[in-house]
Amino acid sequence: MTGRTAVWWIRRDLRLGDNAALHAALEMGRTVVPVFILDDRLLQGRTASPWRNAFLCGGLAALDAALRERGSRPILRRGDPRQEIARLAREVNAEEVVAEVDYTPYARRRDSAVSLYLPSRWVGGLTVHPPEFITRPDGSPFAVYGAFRRAWQALPLPREQAVLPPPAALRPPSPLGSEPLPAWEANPDYPPGEGEALQRLERFTASPIASYAAGRNALEPAASSGLSPYLRFGMVSARTAVVHARRAAAEAADETELGSIEAWIDELIWREFYIGILAHYPQVLRKAFRPALRAIPWRNHQEDFAAWTDGRTGFPVVDAAMRQLRQTGWIPNRARMIVASFLTKDLLIDWRWGERWFMQNLIDGDPAANNGGWQWTAGVGTDAAPYFRIFNPVLQSKKFDPAGAYVRRWVPELSPLPNEYVHEPWRMTDTMLRDLSFGIGRDYPAPIVDHARQRAEVLTMYRSALARGEANRKP
After folding, report:
1. Which CATH class for the 5-126 domain?
2. Active site residue 51
């Protein structure tokens, strides 16, 4: 291969539009060799998800088609990324490897190793503002969302003309060996690819975003943009999402609509907050951010955990969410908080068990956001909900699924129950149960715990852990 050549190492940026890594590789008219490494450590590791793997493979297929339309194609290799990138760079006599920076501990170790023996350039793109740009005056990171949000908003936001366009054409790479794309089965709820991501963003910001705040916590139908898997794999950039949201804000009819749009942008800022936390405090993937709450004596009963994962706890909203997760790879954010609170506060099971289960099942599972959400709900993380905030699953169900549509959709055996009892079927009298030919413990499980009793126990457990933790920190 002659001429100046750069390797574009694709990781979490399965797109051609607004791709700073691709544009960096294209500087000075270089031939660009797109490559994706099938890394078994990620594809088959302990937090690998069949849903996510299939979505990734579908995204690679869509990217392959988009590149071929422009005269190029992605090269797939399988193995240790450090070795495979070095091997490919030698094959094409590349002057440089260019990639979008990632902030997980594994990615940083991997990329640091590559930088030792290959000319490498790591560019932004995963976030609107890189974590290193959002710090206190002394350079230390923010650990409270409110302060982070103000600093984030104080920085210039991307304008439409700043969004990088996809290249019209690319120079074809010379013939190179490439692995076949693994077989994958599309999730009908989430067709993969940049085109689908942009269509969803256009549809959402054209109208639904204006009422997002009012319905964001509803369980059925979920008032979601449906963009989280696409942001997870960079099929659309966070910059593009903000540009579209700002365009909608400029056309907002009133303060209510504007507030709704700002509420959705807040979700993007939360995403960047958690990415920043992981970047600055990588230990959060192993232990609680708050040192005083690292020694909670979790009960960790395997039988209770199995009931939670299977959706047979006897609490309808919890079971509905966990069954939806198994069947679709996704659940609304409110449902994530409900089931996380139930696992940690009602079942007294270590939040890391739930964090890992989510990563193994979520199509949008992201190490930073998933960890941040679990630590927040468990009350052990940065900017966490107070440990004494304990979701009552019945009240949550009644408030956010008042007609029981969500419960009935995912726990169909409860469909015959009247609205008054669909959230707590154990309250039905024997006469009611007999008239419906419905049996608690036969057709649907009895509650595996007493919420009121568990609430009192977990409060005592957290208070004791805090007292011990604070005492141990005193000189």
Report:
1. alpha beta
2. no
